Amino acid sequence: MTQPSSTTATQDPSAGDGPPKLECRSVWKLFGAGGETYRVDALDAADNAALARAGLVGAVRNVNLGVREGEIFVIMGLSGSGKSTLVRCLSRLVEPTSGEILFNGENLLDASAKRMIEIRRHHMGMVFQHFALLPHMSVLGNVAFPLEVQGVPRAEREARARKMIELVGLDGREAFYPRELSGGQQQRVGIARSLAVEPELWFLDEPFSALDPLIRREMQDEFIRLQSVLRKTIVFITHDFDEAIRLADRIAIMKDGAVVQTGTPEDLVLRPADAYVAEFTRGVSRSKVVRVASVMQPGEPSSAAPSVMENVPVAEAAPLFADGVQELCVTGRDQRPVGRLSRQAVADVMMLG
């Protein structure tokens, strides 16, 4: 049978400069007795109906994707789609049934338990929906805790923890306890704690979904700011498409354990792979997903023109045209000009809805 596709016809999941930082190859996770010996490659054996007849649940089914260094890769889907199980497979907190998971070229499924502990402690950071702060420890103690587990000397770990606390905007609250903090502040502590180990790869599983809408928006802004400074390789899980398109470089949409399409927010909204993705993205305003880079023109505007980054959605650039501004200077990640954005180009996109 034909396996579920994990990308669009034109989207190479590992495309980019050099090999992906993290790569999945035909990853499966089956729950149920006999899952370890079940032949998913047998004819007509891998769809949900066949798995159900065998008493199995295909939580992750034939996932193939690549996460590039320095990108925010969002995995999303409805409840039960398999996104949280997949992210736990990527770090082997849940053991995949079969496939390969390559991190810097090393197959994690061949790694010993001791090696996986080393990788998680020194190369991976994790933030989950529930903050899981230690109530008897101060902010400083919570952020420094993973470094204490690593055996880092106290002076060094506290210095690094203070740096992370400052980075997330909590300086001055080092001696506070979790009960003395708001929900948003507690999540900032969780973020600082995961960053203290200076991870190469950062997993965030619905980190803001427990927060109220205003604090959630504030945390998204903070996350965008942190990424502009740190340039981490990030796998971010969410069920909120508005959150996904605001944060993601690329998005993978899951359904019934399979990835049905991978691409940029623009790809998914403007070129959905099937009816499911089209319905998933139906209510999204085009101006929220079309990036400035897609509609800018070559050349530089006048030196007095306001600037906007090339990866910003057109909807966020539109307010900069107030007070008679006719064009913006578009800048890249290095803050250097890469083009110009006209008022008319923005108006054309906004009219599409």
Describe the overall structure:
- The protein is an alpha/beta fold.
- The protein has helices at residues 48-53, 83-90, 113-123, 139-150, 154-167, 183-195, 213-230, 241-247, 265-270, 275-280, 286-289, 292-295, 314-317, 343-350; strands at 22-31, 57-67, 72-76, 98-103, 106-107, 124-128, 201-205, 233-238, 250-255, 258-263, 307-309, 327-331, 337-342.
- Helix content is 34%, strand content 22%.
- Helix 6 (183-195) packs parallel to helix 7 (213-230).
**What is the gyration radius calculated from CA atoms?**
22 Å
- End-to-end C-alpha gap: 40 Å
Q: What oligomeric state best describes the polypeptide chains here?
A: single chain
Give the SSE order as H and E letters. EHEEHEEHEHHHEHEHEEHHHHEHEEH
Task: Give a short summary of the structure.
The protein has 353 residues and is α/β, with parallel strands linked by helices. It contains 14 helices and 13 strands.
Looking at this protein, list some descriptive labels.
14 helices, about 350 residues, disordered N terminus, 4-stranded antiparallel beta sheet, alpha/beta, globular, about 35% helix, 6-stranded mixed beta sheet
List the helices and strands and how they pair.
Elements: E1 22-31, H1 48-53, E2 57-67, E3 72-76, H2 83-90, E4 98-103, E5 106-107, H3 113-123, E6 124-128, H4 139-150, H5 154-167, H6 183-195, E7 201-205, H7 213-230, E8 233-238, H8 241-247, E9 250-255, E10 258-263, H9 265-270, H10 275-280, H11 286-289, H12 292-295, E11 307-309, H13 314-317, E12 327-331, E13 337-342, H14 343-350
